[in-house]
Amino acid sequence: MLDENGGTDIYQLSPSQIVIESGKENIRCVRLTSGGLIRWYASCCNSAIGNTLGSAKISFVGMPHTFMDHQGDGRKRDEVLGPCRLSIYGCYGKGKLPLGVHPKVPFRFFVRVFCFIVSSSFKKKNFPSPFFDETSGKPVVEPKILSDDQRERLFVDNGLRAN
After folding, report:
1. Interatomic CA distance for residues 3 and 43, integer angstroms
2. pTM for this model (two decimals)
3. Of 59, 40, 60, 56, which Cα lies nearest the Cα of 133?
4. What are phi and psi of 97, to 5 degrees?
5. 76 Cβ partners below 8 Å, 6+ apart?
6. 88: which residues sit within 8 A by CB, 6+ positions away?
């Protein structure tokens, strides 16, 4: 899922823009902490599906391009999904990074995401959702919350902390 620089393209979508055509029974989720992002994945292959902010009321999903079928009609990814608008967290990148990569996250990113969430929520684009039940607003499956030890092991195994 990672490119040659150690990153991946994430697209911001509303839940109502997402259709999972098969394998819904394999949807699972995990949280690094009890109040953190909900990280959705397919249990059959451990493929990342997307991240939500933890509430059905917030109309936002960050979805990696690798989960999307953007080649189904023969068009290139940028034709279907649009060009990359911002590259962030360059401080964690590897090798020669493309021009314009921000070392962390610029303020304009937060403004753009906030405006997207407000607009999508106002337009009620949070449903239908493959991740939350429309009646109760609860996740379609109970999130697994990692223990401190599990979370630390995850960071160490991925080279984010020294052993």
Report:
1. 23
2. 0.85
3. 56
4. -85, 150
5. none
6. 101, 102, 104, 105, 106, 109
* 65-117 pLDDT tens trace: 877 776 777 888 788 778 888 889 999 899 999 888 999 999 999 999 999 99
| Residue with the two structure tokens 């239908």 | 128
Which runs of consecutive H residues, i.e. helices, occur in 14-147? 77-81, 107-122
Parallel, antiparallel, or unpaired: how do β-strands 47-52 and 10-13 relate? unpaired
pLDDT class of 34 with cuts at 50, 70, 90 = very high
Cβ–Cβ < 8 Å for 150, 38: no
CA distances from 114 to 39, 58, 81, 118 (A): 19, 10, 20, 6
Pair of tokens at residue 133: 């039940």
Query: What share of the chain in percent tops pLDDT 70?
Result: 98
Contact at 8 Å (CB) between 69 and 80?
Answer: no
Confidence of residue 28 (pLDDT cuts 50, 70, 90): very high
